[in-house]
Design brief:
It is built from 16 helices and 16 strands. By secondary structure, the protein is an alpha/beta fold.
């Protein structure tokens, strides 16, 4: 009988494992040694391109001097100072604008009732995201002002007023509505979550209680409701991870969360921890990382199409990246082994500004032909080429040509491999390009007679094995040191 029970148990375990129910078997302890041993789910570094969305009650005033983050409207309104890598500005710019347009007695939190999102169509947003070629979406569920885009009981309780999009303004579960639409399109849904809240009464008076009674249950509620594939934590920098109880939260997420095999988290879980924890590291306009990003650990660059993450009515066309700049920014991040999380800032009434739609769709049109050179690739063997960038996948190297070579002759640095074939990725006939070997071991490709593509033209090199750069000689290494 015992043998029969054992056999039945084994059969059940095999069946459950095969179905994915028991796919997550490792238990994680609430310490960084254990948590950092986790392997990043494979889907994330292969996805390469995501859409960031900064949307909240700051989207109602939607204003700031060019070069500032409008989602910080309340902070700069109260603190009466601007900081960061911005131009010198009138430190009273926000208070002056606010008093003139809304009155000195109008509180920032009163914008909540005006955040109606009456033109928000989640299916329309999801359609744009799918057409952009993005593989995942990350919405600000709550920024540093504490206002929530889902029915969070903790938000209204600790603020002492209706402070969610379900109770005031839009009177909709914006997190849930967008998640449904995005997932219908086959994209993964994630959320940005701020650990701290600038002026939350409980945060200002009793930090320990704020974490225990607000952050812990609120975070778990968000995760349990929506099963996010990505969690982008932020607002961690005022306190160490021990104060935020971050390792406890992440151990719960990995062990008891609803989708432990899918979810990925970033590195913003405590003061000075960026680039030292998390499934992936983050940069922001190339800033705020403790390490130089490379392909050794999954990482992601986030930035806006303009400068601000939240919509800024004060930005004009020259403040936005061109279509070409958007495409090449994606290529550049991928060529170094990273992802791009490109931000849009919708309006308070729920529209994606047309210029942002235009840029996303331009990326999508380019990817429709060239997706093979982006998705699932790794950092290229050639970095910061004068004429473009490179990515790699298996035995293939993808050369992204920005500057078309004079006379159509493209010089490619040396590899120890042999080239099996070369062709333009946009060429449906895969016509072979003429190749000659240079004295230094590199190659020259003959592109004459071929047309360029908008933004970047991709040449595929199929090699006799994974790309290998030649070893540097001692003399060459010495010369390089001299140049430094």
């Amino acid at each position: 009988m015992t043998q029969v029970r054992t056999l039945i148990t084994s059969v059940i375990l095999v069946a459950l494992t095969a179905s994915g129910v028991l796919a997550q078997t490792k238990r994680y302890e609430p310490n960084w040694k254990s948590l950092n041993a986790r392997q990043c789910p494979k889907w994330f570094p292969e996805a390469k391109f995501g859409i960031f969305i900064h949307w909240g009650i700051y989207s109602v005033p939607a204003w700031g001097p060019e070069g500032t983050y409008t989602e910080w409207y309340w902070y700069w309104l109260r603190e009466k100072k601007l900081w960061g890598a911005f131009k010198p500005y009138d430190q009273m710019a926000y208070p002056k604008f606010h008093a003139k347009n809304y009155g000195e007695d109008f509180e920032y939190q009163d914008f909540a009732a005006k955040f109606r999102a009456e033109l928000f169509d989640p299916d329309e947003w999801a359609d744009i995201f799918e057409r952009s070629g993005a593989k995942y979406v990350v919405l600000t569920s709550k920024h540093h002002d504490g206002f929530c885009l889902w029915p969070s009981a903790e938000a209204s309780k600790t603020w002492g007023r209706p402070y969610t999009s379900v109770e005031t303004g839009a009177q909709r579960d914006l997190c849930g509505d967008l998640a449904k639409a995005v997932r219908k399109r086959g994209l993964r849904m994630g959320y940005y979550y701020s650990l701290y809240e600038w002026y939350n009464p409980l945060y200002k008076t009793d930090l320990k209680r704020f974490v225990a009674e607000h952050v812990m249950p609120q975070f778990k509620d968000l995760v349990t409701r929506y099963k996010p594939a990505v969690i982008f934590a932020d607002g961690e920098w005022e306190h160490p991870a021990e104060t935020w109880r971050s390792t406890e939260l992440l151990a719960w997420l990995y062990n008891q969360g609803p989708n432990p095999d899918e979810v990925v988290v970033n590195d913003r879980w405590g003061k000075d921890l960026r680039s030292f924890c998390g499934d992936y590291y983050t940069t922001e306009y190339g800033l705020y990382a403790n390490k130089e990003m490379s392909g050794s650990h999954p990482w992601e660059e986030s930035r806006g199409i303009g400068h601000s993450y939240g919509y800024n009515r004060n930005e004009n066309v020259d403040d936005y990246m061109s279509r070409t700049k958007c495409v090449r920014t994606l290529i550049d991040m991928v060529s170094r082994g990273g992802n791009l999380l490109l931000d849009i800032g919708p309006t308070g009434d729920g529209r994606i500004p047309v210029i942002m739609q235009d840029r996303l769709l331009a990326i999508g049109r380019w990817l429709k032909t060239n997706s093979e050179s982006i998705y699932g690739t790794t950092a290229g063997p050639f970095q910061d080429l004068a004429w473009g960038r490179s990515t790699a996948k298996g035995k293939k190297v993808y050369l992204h040509i920005y500057e078309w070579p004079a006379g159509g002759k493209l010089d490619v640095p040396p590899l120890t491999n042999h080239i099996v074939s070369t062709y333009l990725l946009a060429d449906p006939d895969r016509s072979t390009l003429a190749v000659s070997r240079r004295e230094d071991g590199g190659w020259q490709l003959d592109l004459s007679g071929h047309c360029t593509q908008k933004h970047a033209t991709v040449v595929v090199l199929t090699l006799d094995g994974p790309p290998k750069a030649p070893k540097k000689t001692e003399a060459a290494a010495g010369d390089e040191d001299e140049q430094r």
